[in-house]
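Tokens as discussed.
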């Protein structure tokens, strides 16, 4: 989740968006970097499935809920919470 584009879209990035995103510690310009990004996204999907199956949530879920409820107010004020 942790990108401004995910926050403004009020949803997690899909795989293609994540692969293309510039905000990451993993390069999207090399074959090894792309391989690592796909692996990171695979792990994200497995974690999301695990949370759903086990009825768990984490801080990303809390932040996403807050963004969905208050996105206009948060970004129109020019500052984040």
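Sequence:
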């Amino acid at each position: 989740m942790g990108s401004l584009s995910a926050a403004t879209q009020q949803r997690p990035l899909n795989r293609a968006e994540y692969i293309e995103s510039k905000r990451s510690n993993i390069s999207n310009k090399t074959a090894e970097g792309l391989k690592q990004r796909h692996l990171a996204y695979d792990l994200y999907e497995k974690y999301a499935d695990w949370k759903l199956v086990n009825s768990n949530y984490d801080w990303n879920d809390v932040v996403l809920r807050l963004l969905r409820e208050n996105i206009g107010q948060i970004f129109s004020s020019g500052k984040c919470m």
